[in-house]
Amino acid sequence: MADNVPNNGGASCPLSQAVTRSDLHEFQEAMFAKLSVLIAGQLQSAVEAILKPAIDAAMGPISDRAGALELAVTCLSSECRQMADKIDDLESRSRRCNLRGVGVPERLEGADPVAFMSGFFTEVLGDSLAPSPMKLDSLAGQFILPV
After folding, report:
1. In angstroms, rounded to a whole number, what is the distance separating the alpha carbons of residues 134 and 126?
2. What domain of life is recorded for the organism (predicted)?
3. 65-116 pLDDT, tens digit each
4. What is the DSSP string of the chain?
5. Residue 6: is its pLDDT beyond 60?
6. How many angstroms separate the most distant Cα atoms in the chain?
7. pLDDT at 99
8. What is the CA 89 to chain-centroid distance, rounded?
């Protein structure tokens, strides 16, 4: 028997050839590759088992808060749209009884704009608009016919 093969009490050894240094190096490389794959798999499993629940637990409140904020934005957008419609309606209603003189040069009214506009409407529209001279109220620069 060869010197590098142990004697099993007369039984024949499965190694029939002498193991060389290059054979040991190849075996070592193969074992290292298998061990690396095994360790990487176990590490990935451990990371998934430990970190995934921790990340999910940390992200849960953030996701809940984001959902609540999206709902609040939707509600506020709807309310803003309703308020804008209401403002448009109120502005339209506030102008219904108003007369606006367009194309009248500025500062033509002189010192008494109410008297000027009363005479202006009577002259432009004639006496058929009102049987007696019109009375106008001045409110924030607008002239309103009393109803």
Report:
1. 11
2. Eukaryota
3. 999 999 999 999 999 999 999 999 988 887 776 666 677 787 887 788 777 8
4. --TTS--BTTBPPS--SPPPHHHHHHHHHHHHHHHHHHHHHHHHHHHHHHHHHHHHHHHHHHHHHHHHHHHHHHHHHHHHHHHHHHHHHHHHHHTTTB----SPPTT-STT-HHHHHHHHHHHHH-TTS-SS----EEETTEEE---
5. no
6. 143
7. 66
8. 30
Q: Which amino acid is at 100?
A: R
122-144 confidence digits (pLDDT tens): 777 776 666 666 666 655 455 55
Q: What are phi and psi of 98, to 5 degrees?
A: -95, 145
d(CA 132, CA 80): 46
Q: Which residues contact 145 (CB under 8 A, 6 or more apart)?
A: 97, 98, 99, 134, 136
Q: How far apart are CA 147 and CA 130, in angstroms?
A: 11
Determine the Cα angle at 85 with ends 81 and 90, to 5°. Answer: 145
